[in-house]
Amino acid sequence: MTSGNNSLPVEVQKLIIAFSTLPGIGPKTAQRLSYFVLSQNKEETLKLSEALIEVKENLSFCKTCCFITSDKNSESCSYCYEKDSAQICVVENVIDAITIEMSGIHKGSFHVLHGAISPINGIGPEKLKIEELMKRINRGETKEIILATNPTLEGEATGMYLNKIISENYNNIKLTKLARGLASGTDLEYSDFNTLSNAFQNRTSIDETN
Ligand SMILES: [Zn+2]
Questions:
Q1: In angstroms, what is the span from residue 67 Cα to ligand 1's centroid?
Q2: Ligand 1 centroid from CA 88, angstroms
Q3: What is the pLDDT of residue 164?
Q4: How would you class 197 by CB atoms within 10 Å of its CB: exposed for 0-12, middle for 13-18, buried for 19 or more?
Q5: What is the reported pLDDT for 210?
């Protein structure tokens, strides 16, 4: 933060710092958003703060598939129960799961990793929901794991890591990855339904020697 911010009221400083923690928001945007909130009428701002509080108080992540759930106490969400657990599609984030779900191409279940391996940003495998995935595999119902991480450097590294640990420990699980329909470097959430459906239908087995 620039020293110029020190002359601002402490409330505004706090807001700028809070906005800065959001992904894709740099200091300049954080300042702009803070001034926008200042100029907003109270009702609009309260709606935003209420929505933020409700999300945190009412929702959490499922202990099994790590997707959003409103049932904080149960081990599995309604999603886990409804979907075929023999086929697990592994995605980086909740939005990717929703994108694939909306395309209607995948009838199995999902597993949300909540990120991708990125050594530069200090994100190792231990920071992702991989242990939860292994627990699911250990139940013995899984026949196929579809690696649907993003075709980015981090997504590829994550897919390779998962492929290695799963293929080394379970030889009866088919590991597949999405076909190269998705342009390299594109996030799943931005791909259109046709591209995604093709990538899914033409998914390939991952050779263990990779
Ligand atoms: Zn679940």
A1: 6
A2: 11
A3: 95
A4: middle
A5: 46
CATH code matching the domain that covers 68-205, chosen among 3.40.630.30, 3.40.1360.10, 3.20.20.70, 3.30.450.40:
3.40.1360.10
Q: Which residues surround ligand 1, an ion (CB under 5 A)?
A: 62, 64-65, 77, 79-80
- The pLDDT value recorded for residue 159 is 95
Nearest Cα neighbor of 175 from 207, 150, 149 is: 207
Give the pLDDT confidence score for residue 209 in this predicted structure. 45
The β-bridge partners of 84 are 108
What's the predicted TM-score (pTM) here?
0.81
Helix (H, G, I), strand (E, B) or coil at 30: helix
In CATH terms, the fold of domain 3-58 is: Helicase, Ruva Protein; domain 3 (1.10.8)
* Cα–ligand 1 centroid distance for 158 (angstroms): 21
Burial track 88-103 (b if 16+ CB lie within 10 A, e otherwise): bbbbbbbebbebbbeb
The 3-state DSSP class for residue 39 equals: helix
Distance between Cα 106 and ligand 1 center (Å): 16
Name which of 185, 143, 145, 139 is nearest 164 in CA terms. 145
Who contacts 175 (Cβ-Cβ below 8 Å, separation ≥6)? Answer: 144, 145, 147, 163, 166, 167, 205, 206
Residue numbers of the chain with a pLDDT score lower than 50: 1-3, 208-210
Q: Regarding beta strands 144-147 and 108-112, do their DSSP bridges make them parallel or antiparallel, or are they unpaired?
A: unpaired
pLDDT at 7: 86
